[in-house]
Design goal:
Layout (H helix, E strand, L loop, with lengths): L10 H13 L7 H10 L9 E6 L9 E7 L4 H7 L10 H11 L4 E7 L3 E8 L8 H4 L7 H5 L1 H6 L6 E7 L4 E6 L8 H10 L7 H8 L3 E7 L5 E10 L11 H9 L8 E7 L5 E10 L10 H9 L1
Antiparallel strand pairs: 1-2, 1-10, 2-3, 3-4, 4-5, 5-6, 6-7, 7-8, 8-9, 9-10
Length: 307
């Protein structure tokens, strides 16, 4: 069955699935962008969680993302450099992963790429239940100054000692901090207060309802300013359409016709931009593994709480 743990996984089958899924959005996958990346990480694909993602905002029009997990013995950035998937850089993004590896225990990694644009981003997953603190992470030379600049905000809402995952976007030169957030962070009054504190517009009623069902949140920061650029929330669901009030025709077509992982859970992420636009990202799984790091720690805890 597509999306099952037993489905054969190799570079050819994954590329075919990417091509088929992207076509639902009228996006043509680039062989030059995708095949070399899959080949570079080929040894990890048979055991990986593999997911496809589409976003509802205009900024992501014309692209389609795919992602997969990696065991901790495969360095995603070093591999990307060695295979020419990304160019060396003097920017702090090029140093941050190595510094995190020196400081923190790591469970596993993830790689994110656009099917037309190639390698974009990596994730660093800390061991389940072993959260990192912003105090420790803030000692790293390559960490954005916005982390320390917003320490008061993170502390005020019980997040400063709950860093669960870090994302490094080499193309956008941004960083994500994913938190195993306290339940209060998903309640209406706190969501509103957090948005106001960092200068984001107030969410809509739909967004408030979405946050109540969320399992975690993440913030987006960069190296150019001391601001928190964006705050996003995630929900695991079997019915992604329940969270969409308005979709473009192409995205709606993808949601209702995606051929893989039909009976597997989906992830939906929601955010409000600084200009007030609310948008959603849908993540559907070509290959889901319930025992993966993605389904442990705070996600599993939230599932238990709602049972």
């Amino acid at each position: 069955m597509p999306g099952s743990v037993d489905v054969p996984v190799d570079t050819e089958s994954v590329y075919s699935a990417i091509e088929e899924s992207a076509a639902l959005l009228d996006v043509a996958a680039s062989e030059d962008a995708v095949r070399p990346l899959l080949a570079a990480f080929e040894e990890a694909l048979p055991e990986a969680v593999i997911a496809f993602r589409v976003a509802t905002n205009a900024r992501h029009e014309g692209d389609f993302d795919a992602r997969f997990t990696l065991p901790r013995h495969i360095d995603p950035y070093a591999t990307a450099l060695a295979h020419g998937l990304t160019a060396p850089t003097d920017h702090p993004t090029g140093r941050l992963l190595a510094q995190i590896q020196q400081l923190c225990p790591i469970n596993s990694y993830g790689v994110d790429f656009g099917v037309t644009s190639g390698f974009k981003k990596i994730w660093i997953y800390f061991p389940a239940g072993e959260h990192e603190t912003l105090e420790r992470l803030g000692t790293l030379e390559a960490m954005p100054r916005s982390v320390a600049a917003n320490n008061g905000f993170f502390t005020r809402y019980g997040l400063a000692e709950k860093v669960d995952v870090i994302g490094i976007d080499y193309r956008a030169r941004t960083m994500n901090l994913y938190f195993a957030a306290p339940q209060e962070c998903f309640e209406r009054d706190t969501v509103l207060a957090m948005h106001r504190d960092i200068g984001l517009p107030s969410p809509s009623e739909q967004m408030f309802a979405f946050c109540e069902a969320s399992f975690g949140l993440y913030t987006t920061l960069n190296w150019e300013s001391g601001d928190i650029e964006r705050m996003s929330y995630g929900v695991k669901t079997d019915d992604p359409m329940a969270f969409f009030a308005r979709l473009g025709t192409k995205v709606e077509h993808f949601v209702t016709h995606m051929p893989y992982g039909v009976r597997d859970p989906k992830m939906v992420y929601a955010a409000v931009t600084s200009g007030g636009e609310e948008y959603y990202k849908l993540q559907s799984y070509y290959r889901w593994r319930s025992v993966s790091r993605l389904n442990t720690a705070y996600i599993a805890v939230r599932d238990k709480e709602s049972a």
